[in-house]
Amino acid sequence: MKRAIAICAAFLLAVITAAAQQKPSAQETPHMHQGMEHGGFMQGGMHHAVAKGMKLEEKMDAAAHTITLRVGPMTLPAHTGHMKMPQPPDLFWTVPVDAWLLAYTPRLVDSNPSEVPGRVLHHVAFWNENRSDFLCPNKEEHIFGAGSEMTHWAEIPGFGYRVQKGDKIRIETMVHNPWDTPYDTVYLEVKIQFVPAVASGAGLGAQLGAPPAVQSVYPAWMDVESCGNSGYDLKPGKNVATGTVPVKYDGVLLGVGGHMHDYAKEIVLENATRKETVATLDATVDQHGQLLSMPVVTFFDKGGYKFTAGDTLKITATYENPTGKLLRDGAMGIVVGYFAPADDAQMASLRHKAAPPHEMAGMTHDH
Fold it and tell me: Using the 8-state DSSP alphabet, how is residue 10 labeled?
């Protein structure tokens, strides 16, 4: 367990899409990670033109236990912010195997295929439409995300995200190009490492009572907006936002990182029931207040931080907005981690049938 938690630090760094950002042109908004939600993490209520001709391609290497998904092609003219850029529609991936997903490697390529700088990816988010979030069951489960830093999600030995054959994964992608170089025929590729469930003790061995080789983990998104929309306005000066979420299951939080925007100061996660501070995450910003990074905290000495059903978690995000202006949807305050339940069987109630495909007319990322 301790080894897994130690390695979890590198994994959690990838979860935080508020990592180092590059300076945009004047056409881009001050906060580059302003997102939107489909009943989940991203939010903004933004409407965009839909890019035409987008396809989702899948290539599975059964011997190597990898699946590579490819979204595109996308044309990205120079000096075009995400509000003016035609955006890919939500695309849907049907999971082809019973498995645990172990790791994710995103990259951008052109038709050659040569690598394209990750800076043109505003964000990509994967949502499992067959599962609800364990903290906020009104939301879909957000299983993977990446931004312009294109950080790899490394494997946590002994842990994985369980999927069933036929699960519907909605892929939401937003791009921009506020820089000088145009890019044509761009594809987003995400390589997913997996282990088949039958090879992990979920077949005859499980029937005979043998423990599985892979323990299921659940994404934990603890938001100052509680179970509502993640984005909120920043008024001039100091801003302190607080929210709570209830815990309904016993288990262990392996570690946490944070997602914030420009002018962030800190985000604090507390167990309000026990009156304990779980983690304090101080933002690193440059001299202009632009967010550079958020730290990761793991819980080595405890073997993980234990949650008990009935606990209430409190999340407090602090910003200092020096612009003198109200910044609409200028902030998010989310603590991100992975939760290993004490009894995975209790999580079965989170599964449900996927909703019908969503209409894509106008723009699709908000509803």
Answer: H
